[in-house]
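Case study B.
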Amino acid sequence: EAGVAQSPRYKIIEKRQSVAFWCNPISGHATLYWYQQILGQGPKLLIQFQNNGVVDDSQLPKDRFSAERLKGVDSTLKIQPAKLEDSAVYLCASSFHGGENIQYFGAGTRLSVL
Amino acid sequence: EDQVTQSPEALRLQEGESSSLNCSYTVSGLRGLFWYRQDPGKGPEFLFTLYSAGEEKEKERLKATLTKKESFLHITAPKPEDSATYLCAVRRGGGYNKLIFGAGTRLAVHP
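Model:
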């Protein structure tokens, strides 16, 4: 079974530039999550989708971050404009809606803002 | 406020030297405590879910236990390939499967 796919793996940008990350969840997983993991910290949830609807975006900095999940499958996370403190690994996870709701993670995108 | 604290931050073991990692938590209505393993440059990999005090789960050299305030991940006779960061997370009642993670314990096992 294919896992969660993310791209790109690495991205380096200047502050005030924009950047986008892409995620393809495990087939059949209705729920998709975006996390931010700053070096030395645990992942922090930014936004959670159930199919193509947002169910939790309470920790998403909405003045600069946006996310969408068209057709309830792939998702993109965008930052515009980026700040130095956005340097982190952005992890995508997905889970099947039901049962234990285990979240399975992709390898992440490492973003460096200079 | 929901909180997860892991200790120690880092742990160095000799191969075969057993030890335990701690995860203490405060959460409203626990609906699962999760252990993940994270290797450098990779995403977290699911290990265990525990739901109620007294529950235990095992996988190879790892055993996870749960009390009302904390969880332990016991590592028996570790090998160098067990070196990783171990993350603990809790899921609260009433949420949409939201996980709150601790900062992790970095484990290094030396031959």
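The mean pLDDT of chain A is 95. The remaining cases will be described in the next quarterly update.
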